[in-house]
Design brief:
This protein is an alpha/beta fold. It is built from five helices and seven strands. The chain has helices at about 1-20, 65-80, 95-105, 120-125, 150-164; strands at about 35-40, 45-50, 55-60, 85-90, 110-115, 130-135, 140-145. A seven-stranded mixed sheet has the order 2-1-5-4-3-6-7. It is globular, with a radius of gyration of 16 Å.
Length: about 160
């Protein structure tokens, strides 16, 4: 049992070290801090914080063409890993509430969606749309993905992270 877990950890580390998907330096492994955000489902200010699940945080904008292609992949990942507890959180960057809500309804995707604000933008070190962050079960930022080609590696990383 310990050998299997160590093997999975070694595979996960190898994926980090050799893949182009994450070029994270130690200083980038940040702990997700709770932030207050406006929910696009009820318009209320809600505290967004880590809840112990593996979490994808997706920063995007309705006007971003590249974001649309990422959204299709994230829909697939959300469905594929939902039973394993993957949490997908959508953060709209630089959008008025009405426009973001209209876009969210049109997309038909995302159980949790919020308007980005200065607090979360600062916490994630000024992400530029599109950007996907992977938060591990302990609440640490462990991956940042900005290119569509990296999203195939993201699926492998999720699979490995779910099994540890």
């Amino acid at each position: 049992m310990v050998t299997i877990m160590l093997s999975k950890i070694i595979l996960l580390l190898a994926l980090f070290a050799t893949s182009s998907l994450v070029q994270a330096q130690e200083s980038e492994w940040l702990k997700l801090e709770p932030v207050s955000l406006t929910s696009l489902y009820n318009g209320q200010i809600t505290k967004f914080e880590h809840d112990g699940r593996l979490t994808l945080v997706y920063f995007f904008a309705s006007w971003c063409d590249t974001c649309y292609s990422h959204t299709q992949i994230l829909k697939y990942l959300e469905q594929k890993y939902a039973k394993l507890g993957l949490r997908v959180v959508l953060i709209y960057l630089h959008e008025p509430y009405a426009e973001a809500k209209r876009h969210l309804e049109k997309m038909g995707f995302g159980r949790e969606a919020f308007l980005g604000n200065d607090e979360i933008i600062t916490n994630f070190r000024n992400p530029i749309a599109p950007a996907i962050f992977l938060i591990d079960r302990k609440g640490y930022l462990t991956g940042r993905f900005t290119e569509a080609a990296q999203l195939n590696d993201l699926s492998q990383l999720i699979t490995l992270s779910m099994s540890i």
